[in-house]
Amino acid sequence: MVLTVLLIIRLHNLFAVVMLSGIYSLLAATFFVVVDGVDVAFTEAAVGAGISTVLMLGALSVTTQREKAAAKSTLVPLAVVVVTGAALVYGTLDMPNYGDPEAPIHKHVAPRYIEDSLKETSVPNMVTAVLASYRGYDTLGEVTVIFTAGIGVILLLVRVGGRRRREDEDAA
Amino acid sequence: MSHHLVIRVIAKLLIPFILLFGLYVQFHGDFGPGGGFQAGVIFAVAFVLYALVYGLDNARRIIPDRYIRAGIALGVLIFAGTGVVAMFLGGNYLDYSVLAHDPPHGQHLGIFVVEFGVGLTVASVMVAIFFAFAGRGHKIDEKEG
Fold first, then answer.
1. By the number of CB atoms within 10 A of the CB, which of A28, A53, A88, B38 ranks highest?
2. DSSP character for A66?
3. Chain centroid to CA B45: how far?
4. Quick one: which of B19, B73, B44 has its CA closest to B132?
5. Mean pLDDT, residues B115-129
6. In this complex, do B107 and A136 lie within 8 Å of one another by their Cβ atoms?
7. What is the rounded (10 degree) CA torsion for B62, B64, B70, B74?
8. Cα A153 to Cα A58: distance, rounded to the nearest angstrom
9. pLDDT at A11
């Protein structure tokens, strides 16, 4: 994974960068399988490695394949990224160890999901039960985000209907 | 890509299985990994593959833009509408327990319907975004050529 990231930073051919980001997503998916997050791995493989690579290639076909040389100094962005990364790493120092049963996240609502979700929803896949039922509002919000994204792309890029309407108005 | 015979044949062979796998992930999400989001993406990939191999115009003929746009809105409507139906049946918004004769069955039915809404919206949006980008590239090619 580290190697692909370094290559993404170094390369200037955007086609290769898109392909490498797809490979990175696939590696991330295998990582999620290793930590038993099968649903997340599935999403990462389908969305990250699959469709977003295709969409990036679609975007590349509209623009050019080569990255432009940076016009400004990269020192300020680099400093921002380093400080943000350091803050995030500092934040993880307080976190409990991975898989620690005493961690707060395993003490709050998780026991109820694990023990009662089959009884209450009769859905064996706990992830689906939490996603669609216990956290239904969140999922509705996510679907609305995707809806908004789709509408936004259609409004920005597809203009056949709009032009015809304007011509109608001009005629009237 | 109309002259690549191998790609055309393989794509034709693969697309039914991609669609079937999408449906499996959609409706088996209650029992195994998967659900509306993943299924929607897989379902959309079948159409994207068709558009890549057989050209955008043929793909547009199979699913016209107005159906895609209707699908985008309908999925959200199904999700939100399930919540409203639950309200009419005397529950809270998005409380599926009242949808069937007993709470677990109602929850199962509600999750099933809601996941279908998610899948419909995700698949439609993915196809719409791909068509939008591919359509633009096509126009530019025509101008240059």
1. B38
2. B
3. 9
4. B44
5. 90
6. no
7. 10
8. 13
9. 81
Q: Which of A10-24, A105-119, B2-16, B97-111 has the lowest mean pLDDT?
A: A105-119
CA atoms within 13 A on the CB side of B89: 19
Is pLDDT at B3 greater than 90 in this prediction?
no
ipTM over 0.90? The verdict is no
Core vs surface per residue B36-49: b (16+ CB within 10 A) or e: bbbbbbbbbbbbbb
Stretch 73-102 of chain A: residues touching chain B, C-beta under 8 Å? none
Contact A147 B72 (CB under 8 A): yes
Q: How far apart are CA A26 and CA B11, in angstroms?
A: 22
For chain B, positions 108-127, list CB contacts with chain A under 8 A. Answer: 108, 110-111, 114-115, 117-118, 121-122, 124-126
B65 touches chain A (CB under 8 A): yes
Q: Say whether pLDDT at A171 is over 90.
A: no
Which one of A124, A128, A158 has the shortest CB-CB distance to B132? Answer: A158
The pLDDT value recorded for residue A172 is: 45
Q: Token digits for A29? A: 């998916």
Interface membership of B21 toward A (CB under 8 Å): no
Query: C-alpha dihedral over A141, A144, A148, A154, to 10 degrees?
Result: 150
B46 and chain A in contact, CB less than 8 A: no
- A122 to chain B, any CB pair closer than 8 A? The answer is yes
Instruction: Single out the residue of B109, B115, B24, B77 nearest to residue A136, CA to CA.
Output: B115
Identify the three-state secondary structure at position A73: coil
